[in-house]
Amino acid sequence: QVRLVESGGGLVQPGESLTLSCAASGFSLDYYPIGWFRQAPGKGRESVSCISSNGNTNYAHFAWGRFSTSRDKAKNTVELFMNGLKPEDTAVYYCAIQYNCGSDDASQWGQGTQVTVSS
Q1: For a Cys-Cys bond, which of 45, 72, 78, 80 suits 39, CB 3.0-4.6 Å?
Q2: 42-66: per-residue pLDDT in tens?
């Protein structure tokens, strides 16, 4: 069965860090563009980052300088490292297999992991 599973979410205070992980079962992530998205309460889903199959990355404006994404090929995962978290980063975070990093369209989604930033 092919699926994506996110982990690493939780409750943190403003300024703290979290690392989210996207794991794949049934296939290798190496060959696919993998995106991170988020959806805050009452808002639409927005792109956070994308890493292409050759390792190029792009980020949403709010993520520049605070978030980074990378692959762990040994673990078959893609991580999202989040630093300097703010209350407005509170959302459910999803990873997805994108068709390409130039578009937000995705062929498969994980179930999401909750990130809450609050003092």
Answers
A1: 45
A2: 999 999 999 999 999 999 999 999 9
